[in-house]
Design a protein that fits this description.
The chain is α+β, with helices and mostly antiparallel strands. It is built from eleven helices and four strands; from the N terminus they run ααβααβαααββαααα.
Length: about 260
């Protein structure tokens, strides 16, 4: 399938067949993820694939325990049901054939070198001013991985770091996110655009990114797209959106 078809077919899957994902497939997924853009090509990510079921169950138990500590006891039936969903969303990875954990490694950019010898701004302050490019590029890498999995006939789901996970000591890689890939237990649903009852063309029009279908509305420039999708609560999706946008732009030839 071509790149646009891959983008339109990608959808999240949380229930997988027990079939293992071959090591060579995992290596190729990680290789393609590593082609994502990153600040100064620092590639500040580390990928660790875990297929040992006992280890995944242990990890899920730790996440379950931590989630119970971080979130208060629900006070209503609605809250209880929401908490159960939260718990399942946080631990379903234990039933996946493999989980690829993505960690963020420390990196120094040009901005860090420019202020060397000064107490301020610190690396953390620079990172915040730049809207956390390390998180954004990790999001781009994970989007690459998910699209690669779709192109190989696999399904997958993007998981954020567990609630209350360790922040790291500034020197070692710290938890960033994870992807659970595998063969879907049931036929894969249509992509997000079709799920909302829209064709891909209508979906693009509603996002105001298709000049042929929305001539009366001003288009969002790449800078505006990034400004709208970056927030303190969603740096990862920003990287994913930017990655998909760049991929589609490159494929279409509109960048020439």
């Amino acid at each position: 399938m071509d790149f646009r078809e891959v983008m339109e077919k990608r959808s999240s899957c949380r229930r997988f067949k027990a079939d293992p994902v071959p090591p060579e497939t995992l290596r190729e997924l990680v290789r393609l993820a590593g082609l994502a853009p990153s600040p100064a090509n620092a590639q500040p990510w580390r990928f660790i694939a875990v297929s040992n079921k006992e280890m995944l169950q242990t990890m899920a138990a730790v996440v379950r325990e931590k989630t119970e500590v971080v979130f208060p006891t629900p006070r209503s039936e609605t809250g209880r049901q929401a908490f159960e969903r939260l718990m399942w969303f946080s631990t379903f990875f234990a039933e996946a054939p493999v989980v690829i954990f993505a960690a963020l490694a420390p990196f120094r950019g040009v901005a860090d070198e420019a202020v060397e010898g000064h107490a301020h701004p610190t690396h953390e302050e620079i990172n915040a001013m730049r809207r956390h490019p390390d998180l954004q590029c990790l999001g781009a890498a994970i989007e690459h991985l998910l699209l690669a999995a779709t192109g190989m006939g696999l399904a997958g789901c993007w998981l954020s770091a567990p609630p209350g996970g360790p922040a790291g000591n500034g020197e070692d890689p710290r938890p960033g996110a994870a992807v659970a890939p595998g063969l879907p237990r049931r036929p894969r649903p249509p992509g997000p655009a079709a799920q909302h009852g829209e064709s891909a063309q209508a979906h693009r029009r509603n996002l105001r990114t298709d000049p042929l279908n929305a001539p009366s509305k001003p288009l969002l420039t790449p800078r505006q797209v990034l400004t709208k999708c970056v927030s303190p609560f969603g740096a990862h999706p920003a990287g994913a959106w930017a990655s998909s946008l760049l991929g589609a732009w490159t494929t279409s030839g509109d960048h020439k």
